[in-house]
Each structure stands twice: as structure tokens, then as C-alpha cells.
Amino acid sequence: MPGPMLQAAYEQLLNIESDAEPPIGRHSTEQHLPLIGRKQEWKRLQAAWQVTAVGHSRIVVLTGEAGIGKSRLAEEMVRWANRQGIIAVASNCYLSESSLAYAPVISWLRTYPIRSNMERLSSETRTELSRLLPELLVEYPTIKRPGPLEQSWQRQYFFEALTSAVLLGNRPILLLIDDLQWCPPDTLEWLHFLLRYNDRSRLMLLAIVRAEEVHTETLLVELLNELQQGGRLTEIALTQLSEAEAGELASHMLGRTLTPSEAATLYAETEGNPFFVVEMMRGNLITDTKAPRSPTRDVDLPLGVQAVIQRRLDHLTPEARAVLAVAAVIGRSFSFGLLLRATAISEDALLNVLDELWQRRIVREQEADTYDFTHDKLRVMTYAGLSASRKRTLHRRIAEALETEAAQNLDLVSGQIAMHYEQGYLPLQAARFYERAAVSARRLYANETAIGYYKRALALLDGRSEAAHLCDQLGEILHVLGRYDEARGFWERALSMIGSDRLARAELYRKLGNAWRDQYLYDEALRTYNEAYDLLQAIEEPDRIVWLCRTQIKFEQIQTYYWLGQPEAMFSLLDEIALILTHYGSKADQAHVGQMRAIAALRRDRYCPGTEVVEQCRLILKTLEEIGQVNAIPAARFQVGFVLLLSNAIAEAKTELRDALESAEKTTDLTLVARCLTYLTFTARKRGDIQQVQSYTERSLLMATTVQMPDYIGAAQANLAWLAWRARNLDAVQQYGAAALSAWQKLPVGYMFEWTGRWPLIGVALLAGDLNQIITHAQVLLDEHQQRPPRVLEAAPSSALRIGPNGTIDAMRAVFDSVAALTREYGYL
User: Fold this and answer.
1) Mean pLDDT in residue range 633-643
2) What would the DSSP string read from start to end of 786-827?
């Protein structure tokens, strides 16, 4: 294989610009051979691109068995796209790297067409991209290292940044991904996001899939099914070549037409698989019928093809066979630097070996200093030919080489290091790197990938004391994903491992309680919190940490009582906490107690606050500003705006809520963004500003859905029902109102502002003469957990209940007609 200097000289001889845009990679497959037997498949690919080019993003999936020609067809499409001036970039998924978070995306981002546009992206976007491309932190010193992605709404910004980098300017683009069946789950989720991001984007995702490797009930199957239902999927299944087509391919390689006997023998040996045909011809097995054909264990290939591949490998020099063995243990893809460290030979010697392997079409150069096997079956045959002891030794050597090569960015390769240590029978080292890989994946919110790493580490350490920590981490990540039963299972497993450490056991019980609470099983939650607190009470001579842990458990109980609608229990616990924090807490802790007191007062007073609550919230905000608690200020400002809204100080409320929204958007706190948008909608609704209500509602619904907040999802649906009422679209009122009630049913005592949806539904029921529906809504409006209606309006639902189901609709209409003007004034109707 010629080096860079020789390539540059050769390009000059051919009048080729040496600084031209780099190709996606140089492939050493039989490029001079025509694409035989794939005319219909090529036509379908071209047709799919025509649909894409006019602004309909889609995925095209090439399926078929190994060696059937999927990669060759895809590479032809990429070359065609490049000739048309279309951006086309490629990446691969490898079985040994199937759990590396966002590995294919990193590969795309580092290709020339995408990487060269980095300067055109915003600083915020580059900051997000630095999660995958840490070198950006060096190239752009002004951007700060981003924090971990701990919430689903934070990942939304990350996904948008990745999408912006790929779809910059809505240019037509072809993304090729090989072996999609081995794609990490986090990458699959982003690909789904990418394809749905902009319906008019000119993006084709060309995916190669080995059908036999795809299992049902996987994320990939779910993704493909959803895209198919949305009309965004084109599947092209490649089948074996006919005997005539296989003969034509072989004839092109041989330089003459096969005899009928040779063609029949070839087809019997290969069954029309193009890779098998090429290998049989390369090995001259059609004419050499005496070649040995002993099978290699663990290799699913016809004996004839095995014999050909083995003969090719046997013809290599001893130096080349030794290097190839190391490459096969590394995986399908490998870098020059890693191979150099793992083989411990000179750079010149390694270059000579790679030249030999390249000339024999066993490996190919993908990009600068990166290589892979021309076909995975070549790697499989090489690996299968190694003894067990040799494999163990090489896996250990490669793990150590990876540690050295990637010392500055271990997080990016810790999963690979762990796998090699595991295969090298060094479980403690493997577990350490699996845990590191899991932590790194969690920072990217690649939770499924992290779970896989944690479980592999746990399997290696089970029975050791270190396993308790892994169980705890698995519990946390499963809790975030809403898989509460699984989370509790791991926390209970951790409890069985940690012995009598009361502080550690109390912390696990607190987490168990949170899982019960988030499943709305409040009695179990309170029982578990009590167990945690009893453990801390039993600690003699408690220090500051123990006292603060007790406080944290009480805060968890307070939140539980809030959802149960029990403000008196909240106040009782807050009194206990205040006493503890007098000795051990900070001003910020005391401000937090004040915020919780305000929330408890709102529950007690049915969200009709007095002036003392408003002033208390203002004082908390001022305190936080004075002590410089920057992260806590946006939420405190929101609370001020919220109580002003409830006090009917609409103009002041709007100002505070808008300021809080601006701060929340800067810090990407989407939970707070959803709250601000929801109650800004209330201010617009009370002013009768339909256009503002529409704008805020659309934004709040998106945010609430993103952060999975059923109370605010329901509020957005209720506001859509109000808009429909104003437009006199009664069917839409029913539809949105029902959606709001359905969302609120997930809450133990409902949403405190259900009037937002129930008043429009009362309006529809009055027109329809449905007394039962009117009475049902009136009962809820008067419930002690609902915001108390203004006194001038409270009489209407009370009168509705007195009329009852046996009354007349005329009497019911008269009641509500008497307050019609007021319902519009207050934004109820």
C-alpha cells in the first residue's frame, strides 16, 4: 500500500488536486467489477433518493445474509452521490463495539464534510458536540466543558446539537451506516430523532442490516416498525445471484467464460453468494479441486469457502500472520497506533505488513490511520484459528495498549478496554473499566448502554463487597427510566451486601421510598421512609452528615404529603427540619424550608394565598440573590410569579414568570421551563389574549411532554380546550378536555387547577343538555384539593349540585347564564 508521499506524487501526475475534499474512505474491494445482478435494487435506491431530494427524509434498509453484496451496493450509492456533489459520509457498527455510546455518530462528525463546517455552528452547539468530540475544547478555548446529561430534557438539547451539525443548511446528505443491527441503543434513539426532526429535510439514512442478526422485541425492530408506519422506510432485500449471474461475476474475475462444469461447481459451492464467489475465484478453487477442505470450528461458512480463506491466510508471511492475529483480536476495525503498540514491532515493519495485507485484499484503509477487514468473515476465520491461551494473552496486551494510547480520553474507549480485560480473564480490571464506561455513558444520557456496562461489571464482581455500589448505581439509573420494580430489585440486592452500616442502609431505604412514591404508592413510600429514619435514629452521637440525612428523608416525606394533599403533615415536618437546620443548615437550606412552607400554605389555603405568602416568597428570592445561590434563583423567581398569579396580580406575575422563563431557558432546566410556560398561559388566558394562549400552550405542551409531567400535559390540553371553546369548535373541546382529564387521573388528588379544562367541558355539557356531566364537573370544582373558585363564581357549581340529576336543564342553564360574563372575565370560558 503506497504511503502519503507516494500517493501525493501520483495524484499530481494525474492532475488531481491533492487538497481536494477527502473521500469517505478508500475501499480495496473489487471496484473494477461491474455490479452484477442488482439492477432492480439499484433502481429502487435511485427512486428512494429522488423522494429524499425533494424534501422527504427517510431510511433505506439493505437486508440480506452476510456476503450477499449489501456493502458493495451501498458503496456504489455513496460513490454515485459524491459524483453528483451530494454529501455522503459513512460509518460502521462493530459487534465488539456495539455498546460504545454514539460510536457511529462520532465517526460521522469527524468526516471532512461535517467537521469542516464546525466554525459555522453556534458556540452552544459546539459545547454540546464536545461531549463526543473532546478535541473541540482545545480548538475552541472559549467553550466550557459541559456537565453530565442527567435528565431526559437535557438530552433534547444534545440531540438537537448533533442534528444541527449533520443537517446544517438543509443540504442534501446521505448517511451510510453498516451493520445497523449492532448499533448502540443511544445512537438508534438519536437516529429516530434525526429522521423526525424536520419533515422537509433532504436526508437519506442508508442502513445495512444482517437480517439473521436482528432479534425480535429489540429497539431496532421498534424503530423500523414505527418508521414504516410513518411511510419513511424503504426496505430492499438482496437475494443470492442466479447461476448465470454468479458465472458472469466469476468470468469477469477469471478473464474468460466459465465452462458449464465450472459454473455448476461454483454455484453448488457458493449458492450464489457474491462474497463466496469472489473468494472461490481468488483461491482458484474451481480449477484446483484437490485443495484441502477441513472445517474450522465456530465459523459458519461453506467448507469450500473456508478452504479458500485459510489458503489465503496460510500464504501470508509469518510476520503478517502475527499482526493479523492481533488485528482480529482487536476487532473488525483497528487503528495503526493501537496495532503498533500491541504488536511491539517497529513502525516500518508494521507498514510493510499492512502493505502486504492490503495488497492481498485482507484489510483496507478506512480513513487516516484506521483500517478494517475487507469482510468480517476474514476476521472470524483468523480469530477462530488462535488457541485459547493465545487469545487471552492478546486480549490482555490490547487492553494495556488501549490504556496507554487513549490515556487522555479513557472514557471514550473504557468499554473496549473492559471487554479485552474480560476476554483476557482479568475480571477485576474489566469490572473497573466497565463501571467507568457506564459512568461515561450516563453523562450522555445513554442509559441503556450504561445499564449494559453496569450489569457486565456486576456479573464479574458478584459476591464481592464492591458489587453493592454497582447495584446502587443500577437502581438509580433504572429509577430515572421509570423502571421502578427493577430499581427496587437492585437496591434490595445492595441492602443484602452492605451489612450493618446504618447510614448506607438508610440511604438505600430513602431511594426505595422514592421509587414507591414515583409509582404513586404513597403508603409504601411513607413506610419505607420511616424505616430509613429509624436507622438514622439508632446512630449514637450523630454527626452533621447524619443530621442532614435525616433532614433529606423528611423533605422526601414532605413531598409525599404534598401529593397526598396533607398540608398539616407538611407543616409538622417542616417545623422539625427548621430546628435541625438551625444547628447544621446553611442559609440556602433555610431558604428551601421557606419555599416548602409557602407550598404547604398554598395547599392549605386551596391556592388562594394571602399577602404574607407573597411577601415570604419575595423575601426568599432576595435572600438567595444576596448569598449568590445562582442555581436556585430561577425557581425562586418562578415561585414569586406563581403566587402573584394566584393573587390575581396578573401584570406583576407575567413579569416575574417571563424573567424566570428566560433564566430557565439559559440553564436548560426544562422542568422549570414547562412550569413557567404553563402559568404564563394562565396570565394570557385571564387577559383573553387568544394569540398568546395559543403560542404559550404549544410550547408548554412540548416541554411538559419532553419532561413527562402529567399535570402540565393536562394543563396544556385544557388550554387547547379553552381555545376550541372560544372558536366554538365543540368537538375539539371534548377531545382536548378528555385528554386533560386523562392526564390528571395519574395524580393521586388530581391537578389543583382542573377548572382550566372542566369549565369548557361544562359549557359543552350545557349545550348538549347533559346534567350528569355538569354535576360531575361541579363536584370536582368544589373538592378541597382544587383551587377555591372566586366567591362570585363559587355559587354556580354549588347550585348545580343542589339542582341535581333530577332537575331540569333549563334551571341548570339559568344558573350558569347568570355568571357567563364573569367566567369570561376570569378566563374560565
Assistant:
1) 95
2) SPPPPHHHHHHHHHHHHH-TTS-HHHHHHHHHTTHHHHHHTT
What is the rounded distance in angstroms from the CA atom of residue 185 to the CA atom of residue 182?
9
Sign for the CA dihedral angle at 293, 295, 296, 302 comes to positive
- Cβ count near 670 (within 10 Å): 22
Q: Is the pLDDT of residue 749 over 60?
A: yes
Number of Cβ within a 10 Å radius of residue 220:
20
Q: How far apart (Å, rounded) are the C-alpha atoms in residues 401 and 412? A: 14
In this prediction, residues 513-523 reach a mean pLDDT of 90
Q: Report the largest interatomic distance among the alpha carbons of the chain, rounded to a whole angstrom.
A: 103
Q: What is the pLDDT of residues 651-695, one digit of tens each?
A: 999 999 999 999 888 776 778 899 999 999 999 999 999 999 999
Q: CA–CA separation, 571 vs 601, rounded Å?
A: 8
Q: Which residue from 678, 690, 748 is spatially nearest to 715, judged by alpha carbons? A: 678
In 3-state terms, what secondary structure has residue 728? coil
Cβ–Cβ < 8 Å for 710, 744: yes
**Across the chain, what does the average pLDDT equal?**
88
CB atoms within 10 A of CB 666: 10
Closest CA to 253 of 232, 284, 228: 284
Residue 208 forms beta bridges with which residues?
62
308 — phi, psi (to 5°)? -65, -50
- Tell me how far apart the alpha carbons of residues 93 and 177 are, in angstroms, rounded to a whole number: 7
Nearest one of 540, 576, 539 to 558, comparing CA atoms:
576
Cell 388550554 found at: 719
What is the mean pLDDT of the segment spanning 698-722? 91
Cβ–Cβ < 8 Å for 93, 182? yes
pLDDT at 726: 95
Evaluate the CA torsion angle 650, 652, 653, 657 in order and state its sign.
positive
Residue with cell 435541625: 580
Lookup: cell for 17: 488536486
Check residue 93 and give its pLDDT: 87
Q: Name the residue among 526, 574, 570, 560 with its Cα closest to residue 747.
A: 560
Q: Which residues pair with 63 in a beta bridge?
A: 209, 237
- Please name the residues in contact with 43: beta carbons below 8 A apart, sequence gap of 6 or more: none
Q: Residues 6 or more apart from 342 whose CB is under 8 A from it?
A: 326, 330, 394, 397, 398, 401
CA angle 572, 577, 582 (to 5 degrees): 130
553-586 pLDDT, tens digit each: 999 999 999 989 999 999 999 999 998 888 888 8
d(CA 811, CA 755): 22
The CA distance from 510 to 529, in Å, is: 6
In contact, 281 and 254? CB cutoff 8 Å: yes
The terminus-to-terminus CA distance of the chain in angstroms comes to 77
Q: Cα-Cα-Cα-Cα dihedral of 630, 636, 641, 647, to 10°?
A: -160
Is residue 604 left, alpha or beta, with left meaning phi > 0 and alpha meaning psi from -120 to 50? Answer: alpha
Question: Whole-angstrom Cα distance, residue 697 to residue 543?
Answer: 49
Residues with Cβ within 8 Å of residue 539, at least 6 apart in sequence: 502, 503, 546
- pLDDT tens column, 285-315: 665 444 444 455 555 677 767 777 888 888 8
Contact (CB, 8 A) for 92 and 75? no
Please name every residue paired with 91 in a beta bridge, in sequence order, or none if there are none.
Answer: 177
Q: 505 vs 190, 475, 487, 528, 780, CA distance in Å? A: 38, 14, 15, 11, 42
What are 340-384's pLDDT values in tens digits? 999 989 999 999 999 999 988 899 888 778 898 888 888 888 998
Question: How large is the C-alpha radius of gyration of the chain?
Answer: 33
